[in-house]
Design brief:
Layout lengths: L6 H11 L2 H7 L7 H8 L5 E2 L14 E3 L2 E3 L3 E3 L12 H12 L4 E2 L7 H6 L6 E4 L5 H13 L4 E5 L9 H6 L9 H8 L2 H8 L22 H8 L6 H11 L3 E6 L2 H9 L4 E4 L13 H12 L4 E4 L6 H10 L3 E4 L1 H10 L1 H21 L13 E2 L10
Parallel strand pairs: 4-11, 5-6, 6-7, 7-8, 8-9, 9-10, 10-11
Antiparallel strand pairs: 1-12, 2-3
Helix pairs in contact: 1-15, 4-16, 12-13, 14-16, 15-16
């Protein structure tokens, strides 16, 4: 039995067990990958203040995200093609999140469909929407989200066009995998993954194939998808989608104060400070550096969450102490999923929870809702003195 003490342990096991193209899909950013790297490394610049001789008993990490009770301020972020990391991956991740008591967010570009996840879970999950040009498909997708009982809609704002990820191009990334010699050789060494995929019927994009006219098989899917992300998405379209949806709305991909103010103006319930895990605009600030100016701009007018770079419970604690009301993990749970399936996602959540709980206690707090900037040592120029 492999001993898992931190998220990096899961990552190492994941790398051994997952096909290279899907490991690279998860563990990569766009262009030079500067933003991808700094999302993680910039957390290291923030230090914690240790307190002693304080009562550390009866601790709690329970809180709320958009009015929903959560066991800790962590949600599973939307990740495309999760069902290619492990067979039926979205179902496995959603089950683990439900049992742990945190939200799961299903991607539009998931392998398991909305209906698949709803059928195999009992707790409402969140659905992440990519805004497509095909308005008929878009309206039907939102209706399917309602029919499945999803409790929040997450609109991703930063993927109107695709950032270039060199590894994906070199690997010929697709779902199902392209049968190149290189891919077949690599897949032949991943017997655990292969046995799982042989045992499932879910091997393509379940929210698209069979739901779009003329798209009945994967061969026609990629060209349709690449042409469908709506480059004309603007605030007026977001308002229309909000009205169409009629429920709690979260806007993902906000990195500047001006956009955060606009998100509050159109009536979103929360924003996610996120640079898409460093997979879109390379050279952008890390999410943790972008957080403070956004908090100062919107105050309490809208709930502010943070995504990109979270790899530990200490990262969660630092974001919450700075003023975020919730955080998201993407790669951290995918490492667990690819390494050990549902049990790996559960282990990732357990690791992060223990680190969060213990670090909070060392900083002199018993309730995650009470932590503030007093527990942090933040460099004076952390958010940048930019010209």
């Amino acid at each position: 039995m492999t001993v898992i003490t931190n998220i990096d342990d899961l990552k190492r096991l994941y790398r051994r067990r997952a096909p290279k193209m899907f490991y690279d899909y998860c563990e990569s950013g766009s262009w030079t990958e500067q933003t991808f790297r700094e999302n993680v490394s910039d957390f290291d610049a923030i230090r914690l203040r240790q307190r002693v001789a304080v009562d550390m008993s009866n601790r709690t990490t329970k809180t709320q995200m958009i009015g929903q009770d959560v066991a800790m301020p962590v949600a599973l972020a939307p990740v495309g093609m999760t069902g290619m990391q492990s067979a039926d991956g979205e179902i496995k991740a959603a089950r683990a999140a439900e049992k742990f008591g945190v939200p799961f967010t299903l991607s539009t570009m998931s392998i398991c469909s909305i209906e698949d996840v709803a059928e195999h879970t009992t707790a409402p999950f969140w659905f992440q929407l990519y805004v497509m040009r095909d308005e008929d498909y878009l309206s039907r997708l939102i209706q399917r989200t309602k029919d499945a009982g999803c409790s929040a809609l997450v609109i991703t704002l930063d993927l109107q066009i695709m950032g270039q990820r060199h590894k994906d191009i070199r690997n010929g990334l697709s779902a199902p995998p392209k049968p190149t010699v290189r891919n077949l050789v690599n897949l032949s060494t991943k017997w655990r993954w292969g046995m799982g995929m042989l045992g499932t019927k879910r091997r393509s994009f379940g929210n698209v194939v069979g739901h779009v006219k003329g798209i009945s098989d994967p061969s026609k899917l990629m060209s349709w998808t690449n042409d469908q992300f709506d480059p004309a998405l603007d605030w007026s379209k977001i308002e229309k989608i909000k009205e169409m949806w009629g429920g709690p709305l979260i806007l993902k991909g906000v990195m500047e104060a001006e956009d955060a103010v606009m998100a509050a103006k159109v009536g979103a319930d929360a924003i996610i400070v996120s640079n898409h895990g460093g997979r879109q605009l390379d050279g952008a600030l890390s999410s943790i550096r972008a957080l403070d100016p956004i908090l100062q701009a919107v105050g309490d007018r809208i709930e502010v969450h943070l995504d990109s770079g979270i790899r530990s419970g200490q990262d969660v604690l630092k974001a919450m102490a700075m003023g975020a009301k919730g955080t998201y993990i993407g790669r951290a749970f995918v490492y667990g999923l690819g390494a050990m399936g549902e049990a790996g996602v559960t282990r990732a959540l357990e690791v992060i929870h223990k680190e969060l709980d213990t670090s909070m206690a060392f900083c002199g707090h018993r309730d995650i809702n009470q932590v503030d900037r007093d527990i942090l040592r933040i460099p004076r120029d952390f958010s940048g003195d930019w010209a």
